[in-house]
């Protein structure tokens, strides 16, 4: 395979038809390719000629690494905004579907994107299977009439709606989406350097935050909670791994806290694993998502709040309180989180090692098979149907 790249030029690459093999061609459409989605592209590559449609320019400013996965073609897309910036439009997607007629399209399920709706309609008209991959309506209880109609229409137009978790599927079934259109591929990520739970002592003095420093991460709450435990004489240190739009402000505001260690944006799994060895638990105090799975991979029981609809993704639902991690009340403020950390710091090391083992087991279960392999199987079934 080649790794041809187009910038914003809408034309097809010269000689493209001549280089196409007999393997099916699949378009994989994302707003950007985060590092954890590279495994998805690699798994799709095993079965298909994969053309990735995404934006890569400027993603570092939002705390992402710029990834260029190996694929048949990487199409650099622009994302424009319409109608007072409420509607999004991703360039090249519709035209390339209509002109090339791929064997299938796998596209992210953000219903604010006009390009999603155009891809669904075009797929119906020209007979191209379009599979959408998303979170469902777990955040919205009740969903509301307009939102319910919108999602029911999207599922009706799609060949399959691939749900992030069982909670995602349940939320769509509750608004009347047909169960036979819904399939679950537990949202996960693969980590190249994991931590074996046998290396954990259960008495480490660190708490690890890993993720983008963005609106909703609420790292301030965690800094204050750890500070309260320090003031009470407990040996506890906060390790913050991540970059993003709030990174510099947070370091300015809390740079005088000697119990906070700032690492910035770290993308090397081995380096992150080494940092994690100093930690007893991980904590995402705000709207968490896939960081939960990364903490599982490091044998760090995650600490998250208990109100799933307020999370960025449904993945915090993987945490079982007291078994694979710990939950604190979402409305408890700094003191609610501090109380949970006090409870953890009072547990004997043996109990913490058991929880670390359960967290590690959860990671391996979520990756058997990996998300990419599961998605490849689902797309392959649609292509063969």
Automatic annotation (TrEMBL):
A molecular function GO annotation: glycosyltransferase activity
InterPro entries: Glyco_trans_4-like_N (IPR028098)
Alphabetical UniProt keywords: Transferase
Span of domain Glycosyltransferase subfamily 4-like N-terminal: 33-186
UniProt KW Lyase keyword: no
Coiled coil region boundaries: none
Gene3D superfamilies with a match to the protein in the record: Glycogen Phosphorylase B
One Pfam family this sequence matches: Glyco_trans_1_4
Highest taxon above the source species: Bacteria
Keyword Transferase: yes
PANTHER family: GLYCOSYLTRANSFERASE
Protein name: Glycosyltransferase involved in cell wall bisynthesis
Organism lineage string: Bacteria, Pseudomonadati, Pseudomonadota, Betaproteobacteria, Burkholderiales
């Amino acid at each position: 395979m080649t790794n041809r790249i187009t910038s914003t030029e809408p034309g097809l690459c010269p000689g493209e038809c001549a280089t196409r093999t007999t393997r099916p061609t699949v378009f994989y459409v994302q707003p950007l390719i985060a590092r954890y989605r590279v495994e998805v592209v690699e798994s799709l590559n095993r079965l298909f000629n994969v053309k990735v449609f995404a934006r890569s320019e400027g993603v570092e400013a939002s705390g992402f690494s710029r990834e260029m996965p190996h694929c048949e073609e990487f199409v650099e897309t622009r994302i424009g905004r319409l109608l007072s910036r409420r509607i999004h439009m991703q360039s090249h997607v519709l035209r390339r579907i209509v002109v090339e007629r791929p064997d299938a399209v796998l596209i992210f399920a953000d219903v604010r994107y006009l390009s999603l709706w155009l891809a669904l309609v075009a797929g119906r008209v020209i007979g191209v299977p379009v599979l959408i991959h998303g979170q469902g309506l777990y955040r919205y209880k009740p969903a509301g009439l307009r939102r319910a109609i919108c999602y029911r229409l999207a599922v009706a137009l799609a060949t399959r709606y691939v749900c992030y978790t069982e909670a995602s599927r349940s939320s769509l079934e509750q608004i009347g989406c047909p169960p036979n259109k819904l399939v679950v591929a537990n949202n996960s990520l693969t980590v190249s350097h994991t931590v074996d739970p046998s290396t954990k002592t259960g008495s480490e003095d660190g708490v690890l935050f890993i993720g983008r420093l963005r609106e909703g991460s609420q790292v301030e709450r965690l800094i204050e909670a750890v500070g309260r435990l320090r003031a009470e004489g407990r040996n506890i240190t906060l390790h913050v791994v991540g970059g993003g739009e709030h990174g510099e402000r947070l370091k300015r505001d809390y740079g005088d806290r000697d119990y906070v260690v700032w690492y910035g944006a770290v993308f090397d799994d081995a380096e992150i694993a080494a940092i994690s060895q100093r930690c007893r638990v991980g904590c995402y105090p705000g709207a968490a998502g896939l960081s939960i799975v990364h903490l599982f991979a490091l044998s760090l029981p995650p600490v998250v709040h208990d109100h799933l609809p307020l999370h960025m993704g449904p993945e915090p639902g993987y945490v079982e309180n007291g078994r694979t991690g710990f939950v604190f009340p979402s409305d408890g403020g700094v003191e609610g989180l501090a109380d949970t950390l006090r409870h953890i710091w009072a547990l004997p090391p043996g109990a913490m090692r058991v929880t670390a083992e359960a967290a590690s087991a959860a990671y391996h279960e979520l990756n058997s098979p990996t998300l990419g392999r599961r998605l490849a199987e689902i797309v392959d079934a649609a292509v063969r149907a």
